[in-house]
Design a protein that fits this description.
The chain has 6 helices and 7 strands. It is of the alpha/beta class. The protein is globular. The two termini are 28 Å apart. The C terminus is likely disordered.
């Protein structure tokens, strides 16, 4: 799906709108500071990786889709992008990021109790520095509807149950159709973390 989607132009974003939205709902909400090292997971064609770099972060992007990564590298040649799977080994040292953000990653659009999302979250948490922050920004109307053909409309409770395994003090908020979640690394005693 994504190869065709990205080849046809992908998502369309407005720079100023995205700048102000992320400044308010991500940067200020979580107290992120310029110069922090950031990983964007499911970076697609690179728009938001570039945006975070423009905002002063040392941001790199990963995506599983080769067409998205190729397009990102062409559009933003001064930025760094890698083709990689969030559930597997990444081309970085563990503990090397202050923040990991994923926006609309397909893994988090469906059953959050399934192995895939937990494998990804558990794996990504290893790449955060102690006290680093994992941030998920994803669309949901919170209805709990689970259409077999469309994305699931997970509830606040679904996101909280997912992230509490990694941080008992995780935050899960909703703003005009968008769920904003955050979990800190090193907050779990290990007893509740995902085990395959």
């Amino acid at each position: 799906f994504y190869d065709t989607f990205y080849a046809s132009g992908g998502w369309r974003y407005g720079l100023l709108r995205e700048w102000w939205w992320h400044r308010r709902h991500v940067v200020r909400r979580f107290g992120l500071t310029r110069g922090q090292r950031m990983l964007e997971v499911a970076s697609g064609m690179g728009f938001h990786t570039n945006l975070f770099c423009l905002m002063g972060f040392d941001c790199v992007g990963i995506d599983t889709c080769p067409t998205g990564i190729e397009s990102a590298r062409k559009r933003y040649p001064r930025r760094t992008f890698h083709q990689a799977d969030a559930k597997g080994d990444l081309p970085f040292e563990r503990g090397s990021f202050d923040n990991i953000i994923t926006r609309g990653c397909s893994l988090y659009h469906y059953d959050l109790a399934a192995p895939g999302p937990h494998q990804a979250t558990a794996n990504l948490m290893q790449y955060l520095r102690p006290g680093g922050r994992f941030i998920l920004v994803i669309v949901s109307d919170l209805s709990g509807e689970r259409d077999p053909v469309k994305i699931w409309q997970n509830r606040i409770e679904d996101y909280r149950a997912h992230f509490e395994r990694y941080d008992a003090d995780c935050t899960v908020d909703w703003h005009r159709g968008v769920v904003i979640c955050s979990a800190r690394s090193g907050q779990c005693d290990g007893a509740t973390a995902f085990r395959p």
